[in-house]
Amino acid sequence: MSTRLATGGRLVNRGAQIEFSFNGKRLQGFLGDTLASALLANGQVLVGRSFKYHRPRGIVASGPEEPNALVNLGEAGRFEPNQRATTTELFAGLSARSQNHWPSLEFDIGALNSYAARVLPAGFYYKTFIHPRPFWKHVFEPIIRHSAGLGAAPKDRDADRYEHFYVHVDVLIVGGGVAGLQAALKAGAEGKRVLLIEQTAAWGGRAPVDGGDIDGTMAEDWVNATLQTLGNMSNVTLRPRCMGAGVYDHGYVLAYEHVSDHTPGTDAPRHRLWRIRAGHVVTATGAIERPLSFAGNDVPGVMLAAAVRDYVVNFGVSPGDRTVVVTNNDDAYRTAIILHQAGLSVPCIVDARPQADGELAMQAKALGIRVATGTGIAAVRGGKRVTGVALCRQAGEGATTEEIACDVVAMSGGWSPVVHLWSHCGGKLVWDEARACFRPDPDRPPRGADGEAFVSVTGAANGDFALGEILPDARVEEPSEMPLLPVWMMPQGAGIAKRAKMWLDFQNDVKVSDVQLAAREGYESVEHTKRYTTLGMATDQGKLSNINGLAVLSHALNAPIPQVGTTTFRPPYTPISMGAIAGEARGDIFQPVRRTPIHDWHEDNGAAFEPVGQWRRPYCFPRGQESQAEAVAREITATRNSLGLLDASTLGKILVKGPDAGRFMDMLYTNMMSSLKPGRCRYGLMCNENGFLMDDGVVARLDEDMFLVHTTTGGADHIHAHMEDWLQCEWWDWQVFTANVTEQWAQVAVVGPNARKVLQKLGGDLDLSAEALPFMGWAEGRIGDFDARVFRISFSGELSFEVAVPASRGRAFWEALHEAGAEFGATAYGTEALHVMRAEKGFIMIGDETDGTVIPQDLGLDWAISRKKEDYLGKRAQARAHMTDPARWKLVGLQTLDGSVLPDGSYALAPGHNANGQRNTQGRVTSTYHSPTLGYGIAMGLVLNGPERMGEVLSFNTVGDATVEARIVSPVFYDPEGEKQNV
Amino acid sequence: MSEMSALPGAVAGGLVDIRELGLQGMVTLKADLSAPETAAAVRAATGTAVPDQRRIIETQTGAVAWMAPDELLILCAHGGADSMVKLLCNALKDIHYLAVNVSDARAFFAIEGSGAREVVAKLAPVDLHPDSFGPGEMRRTRLAQVPAAFWMTGEDSIRLICFRSVARYVFDCLAVSARDGGEVGYF
């Protein structure tokens, strides 16, 4: 049993007992505990089940490398699966549940999988795809889906908030151990702006546990003194609970701060994502201890040696009474010594090396601890908890030489530097033969734009495990260590039965035998082997399994380890919350919503909104019990018969000014704009350089060298960018300035036979008569007491004035129009009425009739393409063979024979089928509506040779089997002579 | 009828005080900023010199801010923006330029209090450290998902402008970032 020791625990406050629950059981811990240490203190070693075989899983580690102790944490809006118990700080009321078991943690039916391990080998998942074929859908897939998955998915809305924080520093140091603190001291003394982040709540890394003296004081005292010195430097910021998650180009680093995970329910954000620009990044990320591969190394109670002593020293927790230490290095002897000093039993240190006479080994022996050299573990006894180990000769095949009863096995296969952050942005590694680890290659660092290294590495992250190596200038006293012996399998000659019980990846159930099978089946690349066996693909991303796995692979392939290489290290270092990534962007501010100056009126008057880009525009204004279709019909009828009002403020408005403005406009538009007279408007088409129609709108010439370009609502920003792109990159010597003034103006379309009357009724100094302000003219002056620009343009086919007033007066102008227009039944209309009315007139809509593959010629807009101009954007593209192909589908009107509305996107059917067995087509619907004006369905579409086939009837498909017949007609359904708009 | 700013009277508290500042005169001037004609016109219209890159100069009636290598923003009384445009047009008629009243295209906010830097640093990718940013500096940048620009009028006081249509979004972003409990304690 694991338990709380009577004394000790440098990180816990024994005066502050707190209550928490695990699987509904109420338990006690101390402030400063992690969930893992508190569980151990309560005798709870078994914490979960493995992914594939549902094997019992116990706590293995004490930090972020933990593969097993993943829990469903919290309830309801604070529920989160797959939380590592080893990095979860205990708080009062914490509730955790173990994962991946059914029906209970103690008794799990899925554990039967373990007996079926022989038929669930490496690549099992992929093999089920192949043979026998029907089995995948009906047998394997349902079973795998049922048993796969770790934690449960959250069901409730996240109760917490999250945020980002941008900082710029000269030096960012990741890792608050001795190496990171030393780096901060140095950079701080140089006057640099320094940020030092540490993923845990405690500073000092391993040194306070592992000991050693620095400049005559204990390592822990040195850490505290250094923290004080750094605290006094105004240019140094220290941030605990903040993990370096990823390193990116240009010194960009993401760090993940646990702001209130340990104090939930406060008003603080839960997580904060630091978005850091660093002049230089120092990784002082330490190292992770490797497990040893021996049979039964996954039984609960087998732990990393350093984790065992962490629980004793940091939390005053004993993982068990009798601990067998198994190692290939000197460092693990520290565990034995610390356990012994804590009054716990260490029956044996099993050392795979033929000799053990380093200083630590001598110390252990002096304490009376037995050391068995040249020895390995043949088997672990026990199921849900270790009960003993069988020893064997490391050099042999695993014949048991001795049985030892114990309840903990503390294993150490050496240490792997945490090279993740070094590697994220291209830093390369070298294999260090002596230390049997990959370490950063100083000659191939991540490089910045200047070609210089922007990441450097210090301490154990660099393979410098000893204090003396980390602090070369300090006076360090620590035991010297003898070299380790690389041990990738224990015993080295183990047979298949043992290899099939040697776990590499505890979470994903990948064993030595699986990697060897993959190698036999032809997997040579470590990246392929990883995906085939799922080695390192669990939520711990192979922190424990990576090096052991590739060492096994390299032996199986008979290739040296550096030749096999590592898999790719990708950010984040450990999983970060989706909330932290989203930051403030949720709820009402998930995305910006753009509102016109008249938006509040629309809300107050029951508008049904639709998104148009980031704008919300009224789709229609239903009244009372009216349906949306009824509202649209009413709005159209009112507009066609008397007076409609449209909030057109979202229309893009871009000023183009300068001596070369006319020349520039002629290049932007397909038609001639330079010949436009001041005071006049002209409709124009804009194409991209591939010839495709990208935007349309009305241009007004304000004066000799200034044009006002109207774009579509969605086009304002990207057309402005398009203009600037050409001006800045191609025609940089043209004298043209542009300005996007879209939001300066509130714009109202005053539409219908009574449009002129209502404006005249408002008064002002403008002559709005047909003679003074003819169709396609514009004027500036006062309407009532509003400064206004009036454009006589029409998108509805009715008499229409688009009136722009300063945005600050928009709401007042809109209300003044309603007041003055009351006698004409002034009716606000929305985008759907706008669409129907333009379709009745056969006006195209960017995004309906165009989709990025349509050229103006397809739409019968040849009249808007200048033949006189030498060039315009898209001209050459439109001359290419495919663009001039007479078989391109062309715009026509479509009128259903039965008066119904054609389905949107419907295809005109042609005889026969294509090579894929699909029905041949000869056209498609681009816009389709019910016309309340005409009383039947109208549509526009692109049809093969359409304009030459007037009167012909085509069949259009529907979602079901039925077809709809429609006749090809002119796209102009309403007032083809344009008599209504030109009055 | 009355003139309306984007979010009349909107206020929020917490780590800082956030206020919508009502209508503010703003004129965009595009021209060759190194031309003597530009310098003379700006001085005649505002009484000050052309600001350096990323700088803002406060004047008696407003301020002049650098926006781009060929663009300035002139702040003045809301009712004075049209005459400011005319003034510039007259002074610059011999060179290539663009001057336009953009007052109503914008919303204008004050963020005041000791947490002002922190609140903005949660939303804008700008170095807000006092060594890098203080009164006299102007940043044209991004605030969460929309364009914005800001400057400081004092150690604890930031002025921020954005497009009018996203005033509500910007205000809400600032307000949530200013909520109590979100102190970073960095600057």
TrEMBL record, chain A:
GO biological process: tetrahydrofolate metabolic process
Keyword Oxidoreductase: yes
Boundaries of every Aminomethyltransferase C-terminal domain copy: 890-975
GO molecular function: sarcosine oxidase activity
Domain FAD/NAD(P)-binding residue range list: 170-421
SoxA A3 domain: residues covered: 501-583
Domain GCVT N-terminal: 598-869
PANTHER family: AMINOMETHYLTRANSFERASE, AMINOMETHYLTRANSFERASE, MITOCHONDRIAL
Family that this chain belongs to: Belongs to the GcvT family.
Protein name in the entry: Sarcosine oxidase subunit alpha family protein
Species of the source: Rhodophyticola porphyridii
Automatic annotation (TrEMBL), chain B:
SUPFAM superfamilies: Folate-binding domain
Tree of life domain: Bacteria
Pfam families associated with the record: SoxG
Gene3D superfamilies: Heterotetrameric sarcosine oxidase (3.30.70.1520), Probable tRNA modification gtpase trme, domain 1 (3.30.1360.120)
Protein name in UniProt: Sarcosine oxidase subunit gamma
Source lineage: Bacteria, Pseudomonadati, Pseudomonadota, Alphaproteobacteria, Rhodobacterales
